[in-house]
Amino acid sequence: MKVRIRLVQVMILVLVAMLAFSPAVLARQKFDTSKLEFIDNGIIKLGVSPDLGGAITYISKSKGGENIINNWDWGRQIQMSFFSYPAPYTEKGREPKDHWKHIGWNPIQAGDDFGNGSKVTAFKKTGSSIYVKCTPMQWPLNNVPGECSYECWIELKGNTVQVKARLNNARSDKTKYKAKHQELPAVYTNGPYYRLMTYSGSKPFTGDKITQIPKKQGKGFPWTYWLATENWAALVNDDDWGLGIYKPNNSYFIGGFAGKEGKGGTNDSPTGYIAPIQTEILDHNIVYTYKYSLILGNLKEIRDYAVEQGKDAKTPEWVFAKDRQHWHYRAANNQGTDAGWPIKGFIELDLSKQGMTAVSPPTLWQAEEAPKLYIEAAFKSSQKKADVAWSHYDGKNYKPNFAPGNRMHFDIKGDGQFRTYEVKLSSAKSYEGAMNYLLLKPSLKTEKGAWVKIKSIRLGK
Questions:
Q1: What is the pLDDT of residue 28?
Q2: What is the model's pLDDT at position 16?
């Protein structure tokens, strides 16, 4: 039985989930706890597996606790996982099984679908911290290492685990592929931790009511997408105790529970799942770093930690000095890419590509707190207008809805010089209430040789 689900387009995921729950997909691997490397700060005991790329395979209370991390196969644990194209992905004459053909390029930290563990290449343990580096395995292929390395810095602080994770890509395939969803990271818990809790409303950091994400019923795709507008989610037991994850400035989440609720240990099939996700381009040479916190405690402690971290969040601002700030692109013929990595002060889009559009990561802001949009950019184009759009948030719609009434034009100068363009969003009647996405269409028509370079996009007054 296999419930490790990769994040790609939803329609394909539904199909693969149905296949993934077939008992014939994968024979269960045995998890050996005797080889773990542990750290313990008197509150949390945490273990990583040197045989599984240093993935986090054990978390419990320091004294007398049971491991709450699921290790049914090498696709669970708490671990790094990244996705790109082509799909299907083949290498060294090895091909994926039919049920993983859609996955594409997918190295993961623990190991592959055939039971081969990822190799640790560097390891250091000091007091309550661990550093680990590994060569991840291509999940859908048999014993094929990824052309990349993963690094994790893990530190225990009170009842939290502070983690920094990094992908160092070194693919020989230098093709520019469009963005895919990324698990940042994947978190799997045992059967007793089946209640998926979060805050998904439009009034974060105000003490508004917590939401429970219900388990999906019936066959098919078992996970649910939502916007965690306080940037956290938790899997807890009947006593409201368990494991939470907080990821700064990351509201896009996926999760759920698979199997029979309430029972099962680390080697059993029932499992809860959470992953903060972003839609990212992974260039052949990208260095991609992210941070997150795990919180072990009751539901109040988990939420209080997240609220304390995020309560002073400012109106969204994206400065493209060194990275894409989680923006991605849409264009015809799968050409939704930019000039490539590294990012040096701006993102550059080719406006000869039909339909070229930039889309923000999901976030949350109130229209009255941000009546204006500021875009620092240089346009090289004969066009006189560009387009912006916004999406309303009602506490349910995790996808953007750029309705016709949620758009407006603004004037641009196409001489290639950097300027800050001020767009008065509040002049549109529909711009009111809670918002969750922005869209920028830099050119209303396809134009050969045209481009735009964008240094920053900011909402404000």
A1: 52
A2: 35
Mean pLDDT of 73-83: 97
- Whether the pLDDT of residue 21 is over 50: the answer is no
DSSP per-residue string spanning 112-147? -TTSPBPEEEEEEEETTEEEEEEE-EETTSSS-B-S
Residue pointed to by tokens 């940037």:
231
Is residue 208 classed exposed, middle or buried when 0-12, 13-18 and 19+ CB atoms within 10 A define those classes?
middle
Q: Is 329 helix (H, G, I), strand (E, B) or coil?
A: strand
What is the helix, strand, coil percentage profile of the chain, to 5? Answer: 10, 40, 50
pLDDT, average across residues 264-293: 97
User: Residue ranges per domain, the chain?
Assistant: 10-310, 317-460
Query: Domain 317-460, what architecture?
Result: Sandwich (2.60)
Contact 265, 182 (CB under 8 A): no
Q: Which of 123, 129, 125 is nearest to 156 (CA)?
A: 129
DSSP structure string for 54-93:
TEEEEEEETTTPPP-B--SSTT-SEEEE--BS-SS--BTT
Domain 10-310 fold: Beta-galactosidase; Chain A, domain 5 (2.70.98)
State pLDDT tens for residues 365-404. 999 999 999 999 999 999 999 999 999 999 989 999 999 9
Structure tokens at 287: 């260095």
pLDDT at 32 (0 to 100)? 72
Instruction: Give the largest CA-CA distance in the chain.
Output: 70
Paired tokens of 37? 């490397």
Dist. CA 271–CA 267, nearest whole Å = 10
Residue among 190, 204, 209, 211 at smallest CA distance from 259: 190
The number of beta carbons lying within 10 Å of the beta carbon of residue 321 is 11
**pLDDT number for residue 22:** 33
Share of the chain above pLDDT 90, in %: 88
Each residue of 52-76: pLDDT tens digit?
Answer: 999 999 999 998 889 999 999 999 9
For residue 130, list its beta bridge partners.
125, 154
Residue 52, amino acid: L
Pairing assessment for the beta strands 180-190 and 271-280 based on DSSP bridges: antiparallel
Identify each DSSP E strand in 299-406 by its residue range: 317-319, 328-330, 347-350, 357-359, 365-366, 372-380, 385-392
